[in-house]
Fold this sequence. Notes:
The chain is built from seven helices and 15 strands. The chain is an alpha/beta fold.
Amino acid sequence: MKAIVVTDQAAGNAGMKLVERPEPQAAINDVVVRVHASGFVGTELTWPSTWTDRLDRDRTPTIPGHELAGVVTALGYGTTGLSVGQRVFGLADWYRDGTLAEYVAIEARNLAPLPGDVDFTVGASLPISGLTAWQGLFEHGRFRAGQSVLVHGAAGAVGSMVTQLAREAGAYIIGTGRAADRQKALDLGAQEFVDLENDVLEDVGGVDLVFDVIGGDIGKRSARLIRTGGTLVSIVGPSEARPADGLTIDFVVESDRAQLSEIVQRVRDGRLRTNIGNIATLDDAVAAFNPTKRISGKTIICVRP
């Protein structure tokens, strides 16, 4: 099968290569999925799990990519809950070969049914961004209707999902980003927007929840904006920032079938819009992940028509 592989961590995205690899086999509780579309996170090649297994042993050449939508072609021993021929989407394990390939072996529990009226490219754009937003807001951030939420990168892949889910749940949303992102963030549901290059972040006053996808100095400054009992939720690693009278929580997204189903239902009924910026074929994937200009939105690889 065709697949994208990486072997050199120092080379970053430029080290991606399209090669032939053996088709995967389904282990116990696995399914094999014929991949129709795949997502990729730009920071993935900096993650330790891309290069080593859980015992810190080298596992290159690695097939990256963890988001997928496709069709089940084989079931491993003991696998239940899915069937051959079923349309699915989901989130592959961090320590296994991923989804930038024609086939992937994946634990059945990491997949959810993909309704027939949802395009494969849309399905592949949802798992990481959607689950990260859902878990950060509702599980870790313990969001309640009526609270104010500061969403960094509100027009980005994750931030756009946070903005929409929070607005539906009854939040007052302040989005941040570049000046060019202002209208998009407002269209997605933000009531205010802060241009991080030209506006003063502190002018927003106090908020109940910060969803941080940036970290660094912005994360530290954001912590000082959190009201008593509020929460700073970060997806960029352990934060040095601590609210004076609140919590800081950093987390790594996990697959969850029920949450995937909630997210895709919102797409079906128009409550949630995806944020796809570019669609490329597997043959053109290496070029797509090494763009010459900034791409707004997520790049999705269409492995099959």
